[in-house]
Amino acid sequence: MDRLRPADCLPVLPPRPRFAGARPVTPELIGALGIALLLAILAAGVPIGVGLLLVGLGGLAVMISPEAGLIKLGVVSFEVISKYELGVLPLFLLMAHICFAAGASRDFFDVAARFVGHRRGGLALASIGGCAGFGAISGSSLATVATISSVALPEMRKANYHPGFAAGALAAGGTLGSLIPPSGALIVFGIIAEQSIGKLFAASIVPGASQAVFYMVTIMILCAFNPALGPATARVPWGERIAALRHVVDIFLLILFVIGGLMIGWFTPTEAASVGVVAALLLLAFRGGFSLATIGEALRATLRTAGMIYIVIIGALVFASFVSVSGITEALSGAVTSLHASPIVAILAMTLALLLLGSFLDGVALMLLTTPIFLPIAEQLGYSPIWFGIFLVRTMEIGFVHPPLGLNIYVIQGLAKDLSLGTIFRGVIPFLVADFLHLALLIAFPVLTLWLPGLVAG
Amino acid sequence: QAEYTLTYASPYPPGHPFSRADIAWMKHLEQASGGRIGFRTFWSGSLISSDMSMEEIRHGLVDVGLITPIYARGGAHLLRAQSGFYGGIASIRDQVAVYDCLDARFPEIGQELEGLHVLAAQGGLFPGVLTRNKPVRTLADLKGLRLRAQSDAIDVLRALGADPVNMPMGEVYSALAKGVIDGVVAPADTIKSLHFAEVAHHFTQLRFSRGAYPARAMSDAAWRRLPPDLQGLVGNSRKFWEDVLNTEILASEKAGVDFAAAHKVEMIPFPAAEQHKLDQLYNRYALDQARALGEVGINGEPVFRAAQALIAAGPIACPAPNSGVKP
Amino acid sequence: MDKPEAPTGAAFPEEAISPEEAVLPSHSEATKARGPLAQIAYVLGGAGLLAATTTDSLAVAGRHTGLHLLGSIELVQAAVVLLATSAMLIATMVGGHASVHIVTERLPRPTAARLARVASAVSGVTFLLIALGSAWILSDLWNGHERTELLHLPLRWLRLLWIVFALLIAFQFFRRARASQEPGQ
Ligand code: NA
Ligand code: NA
Questions:
Q1: Could you read off the pLDDT of A169-215 as tens digits, one per residue?
Q2: CA–CA gap between residue A123 and residue A255 (Å, rounded)
Q3: Nearest-CA neighbor of C7 among B32, A155, B170?
Q4: What is the pLDDT of residue C17?
Q5: Measured distance CA(A317)–CA(A299) in Å, rounded
Q6: What is the number of other CB atoms lying within 10 angstroms of the CB of residue A313?
Q7: Is the pLDDT of residue B239 over 90?
């Protein structure tokens, strides 16, 4: 009996894999197993960054050596936490938290509501405007949806808006935060794809603005067919509207200063974060909210969020090394190339993959994971890397709102516990349709994206 | 399937001149070994970084890789500093020859390469000055210009009255476009490769000095995996690799110069007397930097003096290079 | 806060939920971490944030007034190490890591609790491995005088700081793994 090996107990199997000549375990197979293992680990509730790190390390250990894996872990982790360009993300978060503490976000929405509240769905339109405005100071979709919703959702419900409709508009509008510059996702893309961040920001302006327009048109169409979705509020006289503007003059100046200074070249995109923090502190002081307690809370809130992001980035980079060693990149791009599919079909295939991944991955992690795989394919197909960056962020954003797991939906549900997830998801559906139409527009007409950076480049 | 598959990694993308030379070297070895050696490649920093690659190769992350001791922040201070000791040198070939001599003479260089087998050294194009709209015809013209420069040129530029700034190379294009800086200290290939012709209109052909450094290495473990005959083959391929590197680097310079002509970038020759003044100034600060190596326990001055003696003696010939672990 | 005018008809004050609480919708633990370790992390991280802001702003101001701060990038990098390491410890202490809940929230409670314990232990081990890899590199470079290019800031202390924080993060995860074992959790 001692000579009985485990294999002897199993049903008779062919000694080799069925495909003659194939090696039993290829690096690509290890890569695919690694991805499956990652999904399982994440589903078990392991933090996303930790899961990426662990599978990446394990993969490197199996495919190269444990020593190599540990060294890569040491190199990558210190590189990430000491990188100047990544230090920008926490600083933009800090700026948003200070603006929030100063009441800037609420005032911004309030003024917008006075101007359009008397129209059908006017408050929803104002919410989209508020999201776009806040998106111009914040780099993240989640921060935008959280901030604007905390003010706009109660207002809309008070005005008897349909809760699902209101929540859907906010969930979709929040995604404007990650496309409209400054954009954390585009900064990360610029770094890994070695593209000019200034050009990426310029490229995102037309897509970001047209995305907002698409949402507004969606709201208008919905309210035209069903006025009960967003009943009009009392008209505010023009005098009061103009008077209200003075509450947001300082916010407009701040946005103008940061964006204008970037455009003119007073400071670089990386420096803009620090300059923005100082400007936000001045705004806070000007509004009389400057106190140690307020600033302390903004700092603490920033650190809590930044810590989560840093671990995800470290994990994603280690995982990306593993993906690269596994050769899945080459296998995938080889598959796409050998299909001789038209560029449009290939882009549609990528869109599908991004939508799937985007429903459970954080935006930055998704970007780090997919850029090394998809960018070379896209470039081979003749797409500009700048266009591709915008496409990637735009597609990724949709993942924040589509079922089953749009993070923005969970944010809103966190704000309004009485709304069921189903109600919010149903409310999002018309906006998802707008998203797909908008995405198709960007794919069909790359000039929408590339026109502005072309001008900037002179 | 090759008998010995080596992994190769570089922080540069595959289309870069360095990478083209690396690909030529790999093809050369595959042929010369009759297919016994094969390669798997990892480009664009997907596996190794630019400032920690020596450490990553030592620990076996890849078998062969591009190393840049000039970007390492620790453990290679002499290798890094010596590349600034070549004031007055005439060509890339001479840079590599002087490096080989220094390597043979100073065991401290080999100590910094412990655990690595150096497979090629590499020199570099001489940086000139590319300016937006203020042409530089003499050293005096540098006064008041805000220039992005590498760290070894900063003292010299300050002494000449310029305002040197240190910003990531990736931000230089937009900084030039918006006038955040007046120019950049960079070799002529960048006129094309970094699209600088779009934002700068004058290139002054003065020459900041450049030196050579060990640039491609194999891990000790990978070396020991190879049988003696293949070790010999790989060791002997050094000349081939350095030649293709030289060819590719010079071709990128020519491409930059041609591009300048086609895009109305004025090429400004630099007077010999001015260049001589620049070289002397450069060497004065290089000597300071050599002495400052004492802070990290390295006696740099003899290396500096030896490099300058070799350059002054004219055509350079030395015994076989000595870098890294001996077979 | 001294506001010029109250917003029209807000149903609840905006302080009712802060963005970061909303950003992390599915974690149920307290978002405030207390105790001396948390205090140290908040102070270090806050100092890092403020130092990075100040340095970069002064660099910009300096550039426009002709006073050049060469090496400001290196100071920012050092500040970023402080803020990033502290931030990761804080995120761990408040249970603020992003994770997927779609499966775990559908499991029976005891199973989910067991799974959460395993997830915490796995996370702790992962951070021990980070500390190990980082320590290996530090031991290689300890005598190599790793330092920044212009200001010669010694990097070994920053690497050491990261190792210490990685160990503290691992410790927090292990504590969490044990805590959720106790009844009532
Ligand atoms: Na934004
Ligand atoms: Na998502």
A1: 999 998 888 888 777 778 778 766 767 777 888 899 999 999 999 99
A2: 22
A3: A155
A4: 34
A5: 26
A6: 25
A7: yes
- Which contacts of C47-50 are long-range, i.e. CB under 8 A and separated by 24 or more positions? C47/C79, C47/C82, C48/C79, C48/C80, C48/C81, C48/C82, C48/C83, C48/C84, C48/C86, C49/A90, C49/A91, C49/A94, C49/A299, C49/A302, C49/A303, C49/C79, C49/C83, C50/A299
If you count them, how many residues does chain A have? 458
Ligand showing the shortest atom-to-Cα distance for residue A183: 1
Domain regions of chain A by residue span: 85-458
- Both tokens of C130, joined, read 């980070």
pLDDT score of A1: 33
Classify the phi-psi angles of B211: left when phi > 0, otherwise alpha if psi is within -120 to 50, otherwise beta: beta
3-state helix, strand, coil in chain C (%, to 5): 65, 0, 30
The whole-number pLDDT of residue C13 equals 28
For residues B58-85, average pLDDT: 96
Residues of A in contact with B56 (CB under 8 A): 68, 71-72, 75
Domain residue ranges of chain C, discontinuous segments joined by +: 34-97+107-179
Q: Which residues of B192-223 are buried (b: 16+ CB within 10 A; e: fewer)?
A: bbbbbbebbbbbbebbbbbbbbbbbbbbbebb
Cis peptide before A404 (omega within 30 of 0): yes
Query: CB within 8 A of B103, min separation 6: which ones?
Result: B109, B110, B121, B214, B321, B322, B323
Neighbours of ion ligand 2 (CB under 5 A): A 358, 399-400
Mean pLDDT of A224-244: 88
Query: Is the pLDDT confidence value at B44 over 80?
Result: no
A178 touches chain C (CB under 8 A): no
Instruction: Kindly indicate the confidence band of residue C1, based on its pLDDT and cuts at 50, 70 and 90.
Output: very low
A369 three-state secondary structure? helix
Tokens 């995604």, residue? A175
Q: Which amino acid is at A75?
A: V
Number of Cβ atoms within 10 Å of the Cβ of A292: 7
* Ligand nearest to the Cα of A360, by number: 2
Q: In angstroms, what CA-CA distances link B123 with B83, B211, B277? A: 9, 6, 23
Instruction: State the pLDDT at residue B321.
Output: 55
pLDDT of C44-76, one tens digit each?
999 999 999 999 999 999 888 877 778 888 999
Comparison of pLDDT for B66 and A43, the residue scoring more:
B66
Cα dihedral sign, A13-A19-A22-A27: negative
Distance in angstroms (rounded) separating the CA atoms of residues A448 and B188:
34
* Number of continuous H segments (helices) and E segments (strands) in chain C: 5, 0
Residues within 8 A of A (CB atoms), B 22-51 only? 40, 42, 44, 46-47, 49
Q: Bigger pLDDT: B171 or A37?
A: A37
Query: A92, A182 in Cβ contact below 8 A?
Result: yes
The pair of structure tokens assigned to C123 is 């996370």
Distance of residue A167 Cα from the nearest chain B Cα, in angstroms: 40
Probe site for chain A from B171, B172, B182, B196 (most A CB atoms < 10 A)? B171
- CA B145 to the chain's CA centroid: 25
The first and second tokens of residue C61, run together, are 């101001």
C-alpha separations of A434 from A324, A327, A389, A425, C57 in Å = 35, 37, 20, 14, 40
Name the A residues in 112-131 with CB < 8 Å from any C CB: 113-114
- Provide ipTM, 2 decimals: 0.89
> Which residues have C-beta within 8 Å of that of residue A71, sequence separation ≥ 6?
B55, B56, B59, B61, C133, C136, C137
- Read off the DSSP letter of residue C15: G
pLDDT of amino acid A415: 67
Cis peptide before A182 (omega within 30 of 0): yes
d(CA B237, CA A81) in angstroms, rounded, equals 39
